[in-house]
Write a structure and sequence with these properties.
Number of helices: 22
Structural class: alpha+beta
Strand content: 5-15%
Helix content: 55-70%
Radius of gyration: 26 Å
Strand order of the largest sheet: 1-2-5-4-3-6
Distance between the termini: 32 Å
Shape: elongated
């Protein structure tokens, strides 16, 4: 109990430092996360760090028969292996050996049970000591690794977690940033929007903005998508003379959900990696949930548009005369639609195809299987898509090497900052895990799956409301919850947990969020109009999303 209170106190203090550092000290998100990680590491007792290392490699104890000195172990136990049994010694501040277990056989009936077992081990300990439920059963190698982790300095542990996160997602974020910048500068994004407007017609313009925002929000950050689409929304309003609020809300509804649900944007990418969710599964499931939530946003926007009117105001950012020129831009200068869509569709198709083939275990010829394994890798797929987008930029702009270098450098500089923030979040989450927070949530998998989904949603909502950033909220929440995503104990697919965290990053959008001010300033809505129309919509979409997930996980848990 004392250990639990210590862990809770460290966790609360770490979150307070991150949130308070961003809100009151105005620290950059990266600095706030690193400071929080260092503080959590300094306060975490050595025995907690060792316990974390042991728990990652421990063998499950299923049952014990004291009279026969026999122990039933989980499936990870290996025949002929002698395992150490370790018990926490609070006075010594470390785990000490209290006995040994040697696996004698696998798959034989357990005495007096009449059923098959996974592993049977012989228990030996001095003075007849009995095996306790809190003991850790590990191999000698795992014990040495846990001791080594506990002996590392705080700086070493922070650097290790930071580097591990960079290794997982750094290249993906860099490639996604290149794709986004090239889509904008080559005119490919403009082509997608114009084609959608033409397909849906003037009356269907709000749906076109919703679809364009949803599609562009996959490789392009939300702020950038809004920067691109809102001038087109204003220019269209000059022609239609109505529905300006409808245009603004549908742009937000389309782009904001893919920003939090569909990789390779940083938030969902990081959450998927931390919870062990295949990126292809996250893309497909995120797009499916995103369709429901975005349509909810569309219906809400339609309802609001019929009852209230917001005028198009002149502004310094987008003077009305300039918008007229934008709406009359020559489409011959834009790339063809198929080429504009290729950098978005290509990685989704490659990664999704590999996920489907592996999930359904579809038989493929050897050559086709090897090609899909190579091209369907998330890093390779994003690299190919980035190559296509760069070539499109070169073709459209006819730019020189120097000009191309400037565009790519600018994109990578922006990606570098996102990587720093995300990896800083990985360091914070990793140090939080070492406090032993997983022991606090270990009993949660026994709760209803729907309750776990709701809990993940509410934790993310709390962090998002406090500090404003959707990405930081997701990073912080998954650091707390990743301990329960163990396939051995979780009774549903962890993608539900990942999507619940994504939905929880939507409420509540208000003045402490940079996205709030991007929408407010670019659309020329007042602060009161933002709180009246935009904030309720994003909150509603998050609630609808988690409601769908709670229903789905109850009916189709897809337990691994």
């Amino acid at each position: 109990m004392e250990s639990d209170w210590t862990t809770l106190g460290i966790l609360a203090l770490g979150i307070a430092v991150v949130v308070g550092g961003m809100l009151w000290l105005k620290l950059h998100a990266f600095l706030a996360l690193i400071v929080g990680a260092l503080l959590v590491g300094l306060l975490t007792p050595r025995i907690h760090v060792e316990r974390y290392g042991l728990d990652r490699a421990r063998v499950e104890v299923v049952s014990v028969t004291p009279s026969l000195n026999l122990v039933e172990l989980g499936t990870s136990a290996q025949k002929g292996t002698r395992y150490m049994v370790l018990r926490a010694d609070r006075q010594a501040g470390q785990f000490v050996k209290v006995g040994e277990l040697e696996v004698e056989d696998v798959g034989r009936p357990f005495p007096n049970r009449g059923r098959q077992i996974r592993s049977m081990a012989r228990w030996t300990a001095p003075n007849g000591l009995e095996l306790a439920s809190s003991d850790r059963v590990v191999s000698p190698e795992a014990h040495r690794a846990a001791r080594q982790l506990a002996s590392q300095s705080v700086g070493e542990r922070v650097a290790t977690e930071f580097g591990a996160t960079c290794a997982k997602i750094g290249l993906l974020i860099a490639m996604a940033s290149l794709i986004g910048r090239c889509l904008l500068e080559s005119g490919a994004a403009d082509r997608i929007v114009r084609s959608a407007l033409r397909a849906f017609g003037q009356k269907g313009a709000p749906m076109a903005f919703l679809a364009s925002g949803f599609l562009l929000g996959i490789p392009v950050f939300f702020d950038t998508v809004f920067y691109l689409l809102i001038p087109l929304g204003k220019a269209l309003h000059l022609r239609t003379k109505h529905s300006y609020l409808f245009y603004v809300l549908t742009i937000v509804a389309g782009a904001t959900m893919t920003h939090s649900l569909v990789p390779p944007t940083p938030g969902p990418l990081f959450v998927a990696e931390q919870l062990g969710v295949d990126v292809g599964v996250m893309i497909l499931a995120g797009m499916l949930v995103g369709l429901f939530t975005s349509m909810t946003g569309y219906l809400y926007a339609s309802f609001v548009n019929r009852r209230w009117h917001v005028p198009l105001r002149d502004s310094e950012l987008h003077p009305l005369a300039q918008l007229q020129d934008l709406s009359n831009r020559n489409e011959q200068d834009l790339p063809p639609l198929w080429l504009a869509l290729l950098p978005i569709i290509l990685p989704v198709a490659l990664i999704g195809s590999l996920t489907i083939v592996e999930s359904l275990r579809l038989p493929l010829p050897t050559l086709a299987n090897q090609a899909l394994l190579a091209l369907g890798d998330k890093n390779t797929a994003l690299f190919l898509a980035a190559g296509v987008s760069v070539m499109t930029l070169v073709q459209q702009k006819k730019c020189r090497i120097g000009d191309l270098s400037k565009s790519l450098q600018s994109a990578l500089e922006g990606a570098g900052m996102i990587i720093l923030i995300t990896a800083g979040g990985g360091a914070f989450g990793g140090l939080v895990q070492q406090t032993g927070v997983d022991s606090l949530v270990r009993e949660l998998p026994r709760a209803s799956p729907a309750i776990l989904i709701l809990l993940a949603f509410l934790i993310t909502v709390a962090v998002r409301t406090a500090q404003g950033s959707a990405t930081v909220a997701m990073i912080t929440a998954v650091g707390i919850l990743s301990g329960i995503a163990d396939p051995a104990s979780l009774r549903f697919h962890p993608v539900y947990l990942a999507l619940a965290i994504g939905c929880g990053s939507k409420p509540i959008q208000w003045m402490n969020d940079s996205g709030f001010w991007v929408i407010c300033r670019m659309s020329d809505l007042t602060e009161s109009e933002m709180l009246r129309f935009v904030t309720p919509m994003t909150g509603l979409m998050g609630v609808v999303g988690v409601s769908i997930l709670m229903l789905a996980v109850s009916l189709f848990p897809m337990a691994p």
